[in-house]
Amino acid sequence: MYDMHCHILPGVDDGADSFETSIKMIKISKKNGFKGIFATPHYVDNTTYNNTKLIKENFLKLKDKIKKQGIDIDIYIGNEVYVVPNLIKLFEKGFVYTLNNSRYMLIEFPMLDNPYFIESLIYDLKVKGIVPIIAHPERYKMIISNPNVLFKFIKQGALVQINLPSLKGSYGPIIKDTAKILIEHDMLHFIGTDAHSFNRRTPNVEKSLDEFKAIVSNDKFKKILYENPKAVINDKEIKISQPQKYIKEGKVAKFIRKYLK
Asked: Which of 21, 101, 118, 131 has CB 3.0 to 4.6 Å from 16, enough for a Cys bridge?
């Protein structure tokens, strides 16, 4: 399995605070069955979370420490890029990392706002040959309010990564329900832990993985946790199932469905 979203690099954002913490996180990931981890520190323009050089340096140092300690796990460089209107320019100037230097870029939206420029940004990224992967959309107010906003983005060419902890309710029941809606409507292509440490927001996601296995087929599980990540690593095109529009259930239908379960 591959973790597509993890704040495992030390000293570059609000994730790992030391290489010792990074190694502890990696050992937990390994124990949970992960073969590879995408290191995706925040990149937020005009903040302290924008040190491209330090990200590369600490990535290489961590990679070396993993090798010296004989831990059988691979890490891949990337960013979780906070969207801004001038994101294309940041990319062109080499300030942000795509995932393993591929065509795929992990992007983050504001939790509460609905930026006016998202659709045009997705279009511009695609024109540049970049495929945006939307990080944890189940946590965004605009998606919670209307999952079909994400349907529209996927139709534009964006892909989707959901946080495993969302499935066990780590961010609350509304986000858990939204995550399940997205999965049930084929609005999911990758899974991530979004881990930040070894003792808070950890990569220990065994229960979340069990939740995920219970609601998807074996083929879908394999595609999301193995095949799609491998395509990113090798910079290959990803073929997806067509997303399904969400139709909100009425109160009676929702009650009957829950009762029949």
From this structure: 21
Q: Over the range 53-69, which residues count as b (16 or more CB within 10 Å of their CB) and which as e?
A: eebeebbeebeeebeee
Lateral strand order in the sheet of 74-77: 2-6, 36-39, 74-77
Q: DSSP code of 99?
A: G
How buried is residue 51: exposed, middle or buried, by Cβ count under 10 Å (0-12/13-18/19+)?
middle
> CATH number for the domain including 68?
3.20.20.140
Q: Which two tokens stand for residue 93?
A: 């100037």
13: domain range? 2-260
Question: Which residues contact residue 261 at a Cβ distance below 8 angstroms, ignoring those fewer than 6 apart?
Answer: none
Number of structural domains, the chain?
Answer: 1
The predicted structure's pLDDT at residue 200? 86
Q: Is 158 helix (H, G, I), strand (E, B) or coil?
A: coil
| pTM > 0.85 | yes
At 28, the amino acid letter reads I
pLDDT in tens, 167-212: 999 999 999 999 999 999 999 999 999 999 999 899 999 999 999 9
